[in-house]
Amino acid sequence: MDKRKVIMAYRKGFITMQECAQILGIDSMQILGFVDTPDQTVHAEPYIKQSIHV
User: Fold this and answer.
1) C-alpha R_g of the chain
2) 3-state DSSP assignment of residue 51
């Protein structure tokens, strides 16, 4: 499914934030960054754990 369509459905109130995040496969907190930036390409990248020990 096109991520832009999912975000537009959220913005128009057709789906909740939790539903939007679930469809996109991301955390609910990550969705805030996507919906706050209008007209930008959305890239739902998987969360990458990085070691704090360098």
Assistant:
1) 13
2) coil
